[in-house]
Amino acid sequence: LPIRGHPSPDTDASIDPPPYDAQPGPIDLQLHHIVSRDALVVKIQPPKVPPKPISHVACDVVLVIDISGSMCSSAPVPGEGEDTGLSVLDLTKHAAFTIIESMDERDRLGIVTFESESRIIQALEPMTDGNKEQARKRIRALKPMGSTNLWHGMLDGIKLFKNEEDSARVPAVMVLTDGEPNHMCPAQGYIPKMRSMDPLPATIHTFGFGYSLRSGLLKSIAEFSGGNYAFIPDAGMIGTVFVHALANLQATFATKASLKLRYPSSLEIEQMLGDSVDKQAAVSAGNGQMQLTIPLGNIQYGQSRDLWLRLEGITHEKQISDYAIEATLTFEEADKSITTLSSARLGDSTTGTAAALSADEAVYHESRALVCNFISSLFLLGSDGEYRAFTESAKIAEKRLELAQLIATLPSRHLTDGLNKSLMEDLSGDLPRGQISLAISTPEFFVKWGRHFLPSYVNALTRQICNSFKDSAPLQFGSQSPLFTACRDRLDNAFDSIPAPPPSRAVLRHNGGRQARSLTAAPSSMARYRNASGVCFAGSTLVELASGRITEMRKLKRGSRVRTPLGPRKVHLVLKTKVSSETLYRVGSLLVTPWHPLSMDGKSWDFPANMFDAPVLYTGFIYSILLQPDGRPDAHAIRVGGVAWGVTLGHGITRGMDTRAHEFFGDY
């Protein structure tokens, strides 16, 4: 192997790796013994920027796109109210156009689709202007049909890299699906089958859209290949997730990174980030030595990789200098096709000591490991290599108590630096933060979206990558990488500015008493589909007055007396808004926007998008109600459709875990 910065192999010095502080190689590899915590921190610091200015690192990207029938489903943006008739596949096409826009002739793109069968639409081709237009035409022509044959889609994606010369580009397969694979799955399971194959020529990055996912499988596939899994809960997140995924690829310093630790067998070193598909046990290296291998995958410019490891077996009679712990990192620089090696040694008293790790940083890495370990404990890794979430209410309740204890004792809890603060915000911050607590706050939340979101979050936290604009802790990663931020900003602008795709879904329009179905015009901007975060009723919705009579929402006016959970209240204001192609949920006469909190019993609240499965597209007027002032939140709800209580504006709940909480709509 070419060994950068090492003496030539014919010298005695080549027998033992030099200590990190004498290592002039491209990566700064450090070992830190945290005595008070019985821990070892391995810090891998790549260069901040490439040696020469570049717009991005060249990539080979194969898009593997699910075009099964469910991909024609509507893709409304939560909280925006408006649905422009776009489907999930429409937005996937737009994300693909964004990827194409960001590429140049140094990059190559391949396209594979899968439904009941898999089909190679385009081999890896350089993204010249002419080839870009051909790729766009092929993507525009995609139509949803059939079942979900994920396995053969993946195989064809991998196949495009076969018989390819090592191109010195970053290779990646990007798989997007909105459902569970249900056709031609390998009998022994995906991971066992993948283990029996030749080494993968590219990392596989999986993207799960919506809630009908086998997310444990998607995470396992990504983990096995050294890629990333990302959850896209709704249309508002599709842009930001794809933008960050490609920006990470375009900011890659090294691929195929792997760390080997060699240490005396009297010591025990254990990874602390929870279980993983690619986790390996330590093995004997002979001569009283053990060896632990930790696959790391890609490393980005300007973003360190930091491992918090439990270290046991050091006796009081001996110092750490009596135990030689050696670390060797192998990797391929993204623009080269040779393997490079970096080394460090802890316990070599002749070479000085490492620059001290700051106390706050040490606390952060310990806390990050504890959070990752907790999230991982919510999922069992089966013998088939697939993660499966706990779904029993009692188990989820037990985990809520564990989380409360973790939050109360986490080393980060009193620190105010950006890293430690971001971790606490994601654990227990006020909404829209605190997503970890929210994900297991009820069995219903966990089963619906928490079990899909948490594996995506822990992937970002473990691999130290920024995967969206949404969560505080992942947003810290890449912030010190000028190349990553430049790539992200360029992709961000491209997603917003590329002309919106023509909508493929028919829209239900209301004009007076008539209904008509038609295709809407494309939205003027795609920025709404790149959000990291409207509450109204249709005018025909029936509402109960204080007298017990029923009237339509559109007939309410200032001074009307309506029924609330706490008795009669007067209407103070009616807000009437004209909308086009609004997604509403229907239950009887009740037509309500997806994110308008409802309660069936006056006690527990939820969003219509979580409660009902009958969305319609609506054009007409929608209405919001403000009742007379009252300091009690329950005095701000009206009886609608004869089936539910609907929250009204100014209810007083502006923060916290209550579904009704909203900083603006809750402020009277």
UniProtKB/TrEMBL annotation:
- The annotated region (Disordered) lies at 1-23
The record's listing under SMART domains reads:
VWA
Domain (VWFA) spans: 60-246
SUPFAM superfamilies the UniProt entry points to: Hedgehog/intein (Hint) domain, vWA-like
Which protein are we looking at?
Answer: VWFA domain-containing protein
InterPro entries the UniProt entry points to: CLCR (IPR051266), Hint_dom_sf (IPR036844), Vint_dom (IPR039510), Vwaint_dom (IPR032838), VWF_A (IPR002035), vWFA_dom_sf (IPR036465)
PANTHER family, A to Z: CALCIUM-ACTIVATED CHLORIDE CHANNEL REGULATOR, VWFA DOMAIN-CONTAINING PROTEIN
Cleaved signal peptide residues: none
Q: PROSITE patterns in the record, alphabetically?
A: VWFA (PS50234)
Supply the source organism for this entry.
Answer: Hypocrea atroviridis (strain ATCC 20476 / IMI 206040)
